[in-house]
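Hi again,

Forgot to attach this to my earlier email, sorry! This is the prediction with glycinamide ribonucleotide bound. I've pasted everything inline since the attachment limit keeps bouncing my files.
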Amino acid sequence: KTRVGILISGRGSNMEALIRAAARDDFPATIALVLSNRADAAGLDIARQHGIAAHAIPSRDFRNDREGHEARLHQELIAANCSLVCLAGYMRLLTPAFVQSWAGRMLNIHPSLLPSFPGLDTHAKALAAGSRIHGCTVHLVTEIMDEGPILAQAAVPVLPGDTESELGARVLAQEHIIYPMALRHYLGQPAIPADASNALVSPCA
Ligand code: GAR
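Structure tokens for the complex follow:
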């Protein structure tokens, strides 16, 4: 099985979706390690409850030393024999050096239908734009934020009167479906139809 390291910054619900999927015998990956750049990330406890090694490498301990922080992340991922990284609500931009060392081996989930609405506040942006369809994207990480080859997307409707949080919850439910699905597919196992609801996975993995 491919050993995966997950990077988080907060709640960790996508991390948990990956952990739950990877607990199945037939899943091609195992979650070896969870790292957070914030000591107070709720996801750390959730990971530990699932028996996964999890700890913080606080970015605030590396003020003005982004490379130093990421060198530590890299070291720990390598020490845990990870060969793939999943960003799951990791809210810091990564340096080109880190991105390059994981090129083709680092996935991200983003709460919009990229290339629409990169960056933050994607649900507010979709509402402000009058989008009728919104969603989420799993993609490979490249040096440009929220770019990189798209592996999977799922669409949800924007309903009349939607608030940011209602729309966000509808998207998040899909994130939890497509992230494990995209990971499995990227590792060479076809998606099973039962997963697929309204998600599309790229066949080019
Ligand atoms: C998710 O909605 C994820 O798509 C988003 O942050 C949330 C993290 O939630 N990621 C980004 O915006 C990345 N730029 P989670 O910690 O519960 O998975």
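Residues 8, 10-14, 43, 88-89, 109-111, 172, 175 surround glycinamide ribonucleotide (CB under 6 Å). Residues 164-186 form the longest helix (23 residues).

That should be everything now.

G.
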